[in-house]
Design a protein that fits this description.
Layout (H helix, E strand, L loop, with lengths): L5 E3 L5 H4 L7 H6 L1 H17 L11 H14 L5 E5 L6 H10 L16 E5 L4 H7 L8 E6 L6 H13 L8 E6 L4 H9 L2 E5 L12 H9 L4 H15 L9 H14 L4 E6 L5 H15 L8 E4 L10 H6 L4 E10 L24 H18 L4 E8 L2 H22 L10 H10 L6 H11 L7 H8 L1
Helix pairs in contact: 3-15, 4-9, 5-9, 5-12, 10-15, 11-15, 12-15, 16-17
The structure holds 5-phosphoarabinonic acid (PA5).
The site of 5-phosphoarabinonic acid has 14 residues, from loops.
Length: about 475
């Protein structure tokens, strides 16, 4: 159990891809001081409670509440529908796809560890209606997740399901939100089945190991203890050192930082396991919102899927601009071993395939792509999970969080805020007629009519 995930940085070294596109020992050595400094600063942020995701693996109180709420709901509902967006949805989507059966919702009840689990993180009206072709509101547990309690998309979804429940939320709705007083919290406490807390100091995109990710996971029968144990092991052992040599999360941050200075501004994550694909989406948010802060800082995270995107993206990655660093994700032991049955053995085109397994095929294709990219001097590294289970996923998520946190220190940006999303939010509020956002609505009208206006940031500042 204690061994866990491994990182292989061989193909990122100058020996493998040359000095222009690789990372040398000297370049790494130059980062040892900034890393040590960043390590200390993160420790202070942790100590002060300002940034609290670090301690989520040990948060016994919240875990006990999650289990209690999940146990009380057991056997009562045919489906769970999570309403949330961004950090309030991507973690549970990632956990569901990594740790539930790949077609979990389609399985008959006896083969599932809980009710069907839907997570709706958009406001497309067609999609929203479509879910209700599959679920019956009265037999569904709705989990409304919004840390701030003010997110228009989630609140609109909430209003929609409230009307489907004829305003009676006592049996079917659980709210997950900040501890502080808010309208959503008030509704949760006075009208809903239960209200769980996003602990203070835990930002949305760092909340997967809080009730935000744990409650949907527990409802779907995921082993949240093992998930947290993996994360705790990553914290105590894998990420405890300030030195990149002993801390793979820091090494991953350091090599990507060095390569960013060498014009590798695109950070591709390419999992070779379908269960890991949604983790890539979760990671995209943490990378983009944590680091995209000034016009000269912000590696662009890109999701690619192995092997599928070998037939779509790899041409570009191998022969197009050398502006990417690629992180492959692999799994050592898949839960299934599926042989490829032999037939037409004398055929040169097909005969060689039978007798292998799909496990070999996906692994060989990962190796082949890695080597082909390295040969073309495209820097890449590989993270391997021993198998796709709650413990190794806990380790992976935690180490990717630490990678983002320490990267903020290297790039000199605050990894824990997201001021850039405020402008769009203010404009949407204005258009939806929210009180105190009249100026935002006027700003949009003026813009649409081609009239002169201030910048949107100035307008937002004016409204404060
Ligand atoms: O990471 C973030 O802070 C955001 O992506 C939020 O999670 C997202 O905007 C949803 O916010 P909330 O949970 O407050 O509804």
């Amino acid at each position: 159990m204690e061994s866990g995930i491994t990182f292989d940085f061989e193909n990122i070294r100058t020996d493998a891809v040359g000095p222009e596109h690789g990372v040398s020992e000297k370049e790494l050595a130059r980062l040892s001081e900034p890393l040590a400094h960043g390590h200390e600063r993160l420790a202070q942020l942790r100590e002060s409670g300002e940034v609290a995701f670090f301690d989520l693996p040990y948060d016994k109180e919240n875990v006990a509440q999650v289990k209690q709420v999940a146990n009380e709901a057991a056997g009562q509902f045919g489906a769970v529908l999570v309403l949330g967006i961004g950090g309030s949805a991507l973690g549970s989507i990632a956990l569901r796809s990594a740790l539930c059966h790949p077609l979990y919702n389609e399985l008959p009840p006896a083969r599932r560890n809980g009710p069907r689990l839907y997570i709706e993180d958009n406001v497309d009206p067609v999609r929203l209606k479509a879910v209700f072709d599959l679920i019956e509101p009265a037999k569904t547990l709705f989990v409304v997740i919004s840390k701030s309690g003010t997110t228009v998309e989630t609140l609109a979804q909430f209003l929609f399901i409230r009307s489907l429940l004829d305003g009676d939320l006592r049996n079917n709705v659980i709210v997950v939100t900040d501890a502080g007083p808010s309208t959503l919290r008030g509704i949760g406490e006075s009208e809903c089945r239960a209200t769980l807390e996003v602990p203070a100091g835990v930002g949305g995109r760092f909340s997967v190991l809080s009730p935000v990710g744990l409650l949907p996971a527990a409802l779907a029968g995921i082993d949240i203890d093992a998930l947290l144990a993996g994360a705790a092991q990553a914290d105590r052992i894998r990420c405890s050192s300030p030195s990149a040599e002993d801390n793979d999360a820091y090494m991953a941050a350091a090599v990507e930082y060095i390569l960013y200075q060498k014009a590798k501004r695109i950070s591709v994550m390419m999992p070779y396991a379908t269960g890991l694909v949604e983790i890539t989406d979760w990671y995209r948010q943490i990378w983009a919102e944590s680091l995209g802060k000034t016009s000269d800082v912000g590696p662009t995270p890109v999701r690619a899927t192995g092997v599928t995107d070998q037939h779509s993206q790899v041409q570009l990655y191998r022969e197009g601009p050398n502006d990417k660093v690629i992180c492959f994700l692999g799994v050592q032991h898949f839960q299934e071993e599926v042989p490829i049955p032999p037939a037409w053995e004398s055929s040169e085109a097909i005969g060689y395939i039978g007798g292998h397994s799909f496990n070999q095929l996906i692994e060989y294709e990962r190796i082949a792509t890695t080597l082909a990219l390295t040969d073309a001097q495209r820097p890449n590294y590989t993270i391997t999970l021993p198998e796709l289970n709650a413990y190794s996923v806990g380790q992976l998520l935690y180490m990717l969080e630490i990678k983002a946190a320490i990267s903020g220190e290297l790039y000199g940006v605050n990894a824990f805020d997201q001021p850039g999303v405020e402008a769009g939010k203010a404009l949407s509020y204005g258009l939806m007629g929210r009180k105190h956002y009249e100026r935002a609505k006027q700003w949009v009208m003026n813009k649409q009519a081609g009239r002169d206006e201030t910048s949107v940031d100035e307008m937002v500042d004016e409204m404060k």
